[in-house]
Specification:
Length: 118
Amino acid sequence: MTGIWYIVGFGVAGVSFVFLTIGAAWLISHRNRGDAHKGLPYESGIDTFGDTHGRFGLSFYIYALLFVAFDIEVIFIYLWAIVFRSLLLGGFVSMLLFVGILLLGLAYAWRKGVLTWR
């Protein structure tokens, strides 16, 4: 029964941390210190041209997703290499399957022309 109080205490601490963080951000953000240029996207003193909230092309997001996918693959392969001696044949086959699926995804992206920078 005492274990439930740890869970309740952790939940209360988590929820209070969230609300305290949001409240502190609200208090800090509503104080306007400085001149009118303080709120501009760049504080260089040069007026911006056009829309400052321009959109990026879809290729930037696809590049980012591919980077994250293959970055996680490198982490998995590194951890797998650390425990390679203790794995059996099943561990080796599962890593080959994992790398094979990712290589199929890379081949698909390459064939669709995602990796060509325009």
